[in-house]
Design a protein that fits this description.
Elements: E1 3-5, E2 9-11, E3 18-20, E4 32-33, H1 35-38, H2 53-57, E5 62-65, E6 71-75, E7 88-90, E8 104-106, E9 111-112, E10 124-125, E11 136-145, E12 150-156, E13 167-169, H3 174-178, E14 181-183, E15 202-205, E16 208-211, H4 212-268
Parallel strand pairs: 1-14, 9-11
Antiparallel strand pairs: 2-3, 2-4, 5-6, 5-7, 8-9, 8-10, 11-12, 11-13, 11-14, 15-16
Length: 297
């Protein structure tokens, strides 16, 4: 279903009403500018922001009051209250806004701005907890332009939101006239969490389909392979660096020891002097009593 939402009007200077959904919210209804009349204005001045969704949701509503002086819950109009409580309209109430209000429901099941918007219903369930502003179906203001060749349609809460060039279309007639339905607020976009899927279950996203179990397996294997490759490379580089350091230290030690050995051999390697020979001579013809003779060779 194609849908559009309401854009607000504005109570023009010297009015103090500001943003307004209908001309009744202005100090002087003649100061009211419809959303159509506001569409060419600056977005941040002269009420241009009144067409934004934040302004619609922040619109202040009122309450009905019974004959006993009891105020009803927040309401959009006097006609949106239960019939027995429509003695007096009290508004605006700063605590009542479009966003936090519960609207009424028709017999047909349609949430509506007012009981007057229901088709031939005889009952009205006011303040229905399921009728938040994004579910409230509204009508529209329309006009023909370019000599009747093109039709402009602007979603609106009532005929009191139309300017002098526009005519009112009921909520039930909008889809036929414009090709879409009108609602008070846009739908709230809620991003749902991804559903829990068993391993091996196929999930289609856009135009791509993948098997969760396979995808997880491939992801895990890829991660393991990448980590294993990094570990092997780092270990190899570490081993090369460590081997280089050990070889350098061993070579320095070997060189130092060799130099010390050469130095030692150089100091004591000359030929030793000849030994002294001592001979003991005995001449049997000598009359000397076994004298010792020393000879130097």
């Amino acid at each position: 279903m194609t849908r559009k939402s309401v854009q607000g009007g504005y109570c023009n200077w010297p009015d103090t009403g500001g943003c307004a959904l209908t001309k009744l919210e202005c100090d002087d209804p003649s100061n009211f500018l419809s959303s159509r009349q506001m569409q060419s204005g600056p977005s941040r001045a002269h009420g241009g922001s009144c067409r934004w969704q934040d302004s619609i949701r922040d619109t202040v509503l009122g309450r009905c009051q019974t004959a006993d002086g009891v105020k009803t819950p927040c309401a959009s109009t006097l006609e949106s209250c239960p019939e027995d409580d429509r003695t007096k309209w009290v508004g605006p109430d700063p605590t009542c806004t479009v966003e936090n209000n519960f609207f009424g429901r028709c017999d047909s099941g349609m949430c509506a701005w007012s009981h007057d918007h229901c088709p031939t219903d005889n009952t009205w369930d006011a303040f229905d907890g399921g009728c938040t502003c994004d579910r409230v179906q509204v009508g529209a203001c329309s006009r023909w332009k370019d000599g009747g060749k093109e039709r402009e349609v602007f979603c609106a809460v009532s005929e009191l939101a139309c300017d002098d060039e526009q005519t009112w279309i009921t909520p039930q007639e909008v889809e036929t006239a414009a090709g879409f339905d009108c609602f008070l607020c846009r739908e709230v976009s809620v991003v749902a969490p991804p559903p829990e899927t068993d391993l091996g279950t196929a999930v289609t996203e856009g135009s791509e389909t993948m098997t969760i179990g396979t995808a997880r397996s491939e992801t895990n294997n890829s991660g393991i392979n990448n980590n294993g490759t990094i570990i092997v490379v780092c270990a190899t580089l570490g081993a090369v660096v460590a081997s280089s350091i050990i070889g350098l230290v061993a070579w320095r030690i070997f060189k130092t020891r060799r130099a010390a050995k050469r130095a030692f051999e150089g100091g004591f390697g000359t030929e030793a002097p000849p030994t002294i020979a001592i001979e003991m001579c005995t001449d049997e013809h000598d009359d000397t009593d076994k004298a010792s003779v020393l000879s130097m060779e």
